[in-house]
Specification:
Elements: H1 3-28, H2 38-47, E1 53-54, H3 55-62, H4 66-78, E2 82-86, E3 94-98, H5 100-121, H6 126-145
Antiparallel strand pairs: 1-3, 2-3
Helix pairs in contact: 2-5, 3-4
C-alpha cells in the first residue's frame, strides 16, 4: 500500500470520527431531547431497554468510574430519563431503569444508528460487507487494546 493511500485512510478515519460525532449530536439531540447531551444519550444506550442494570455494569460498559457515572445519572434522573432502585437482594446495589421518556430517547438514538448503518452498506456486496466488518473488528481491537500505539505500555 502506498504512503499516499495510507495518508488518505488516516484522513478519512479522522474525518469520519468528527463527522459521526457532529452529525449524531445534530440528529439525536433535537426537539424532545434538547435537554441532554450526546454523552447522556450514550449513557441511555448503555442502560438499554432490557433488564435493569447496575451502576458498575453501566460504568464498565462506558469505560468510566462509578463516581463519574453517578454525576451524569443525577442529571438524567432529574430530567426524567432514568429511575434508580435499590436491589431487593443486596441493598448496596443500585439498579438503573429507563423511564418512558428514557426509552423514547433510546429508540430515537437507535434509529439514527440504523440509518447510519443502512447508508454505509447500501451499495456493498456480501463479500465487501465481510471485508468491511473485518476492518472494523481490527480497528476496534486496536482501539480497545492500545496495541502498537504505546498507550497500553
Amino acid at each position: 500500500m502506498s504512503q499516499s493511500t495510507k495518508r488518505s485512510i488516516n484522513e478519512l478515519l479522522v474525518n469520519l470520527f468528527n463527522h459521526v460525532m457532529d452529525v449524531e449530536a445534530k440528529a439525536v439531540i433535537t426537539g424532545d431531547f434538547s435537554d441532554i447531551t450526546n454523552n447522556d444519550m450514550h449513557i441511555i444506550e448503555a442502560i438499554g431497554v432490557g433488564e435493569p442494570r447496575n451502576m458498575s455494569l453501566i460504568a464498565r460498559k462506558l469505560s468510566v468510574t462509578v463516581s463519574t457515572l453517578t454525576i451524569n445519572m443525577n442529571g438524567l434522573e432529574k430530567k426524567g430519563y432514568i429511575r434508580r432502585e435499590r436491589s431487593q437482594e443486596d441493598k448496596r446495589v443500585v439498579h438503573v431503569i429507563l423511564t418512558p421518556k428514557g426509552r423514547k430517547a433510546f429508540y430515537h438514538h437507535r434509529d439514527f444508528h440504523k440509518k447510519m448503518i443502512r447508508a454505509i452498506v447500501k451499495d456493498l456486496k456480501s463479500d465487501e460487507m465481510e471485508i468491511l466488518y473485518k476492518c472494523l473488528v481490527n480497528l476496534n481491537s486496536f482501539l480497545e487494546t492500545g496495541e502498537d500505539t504505546g498507550l497500553g505500555e
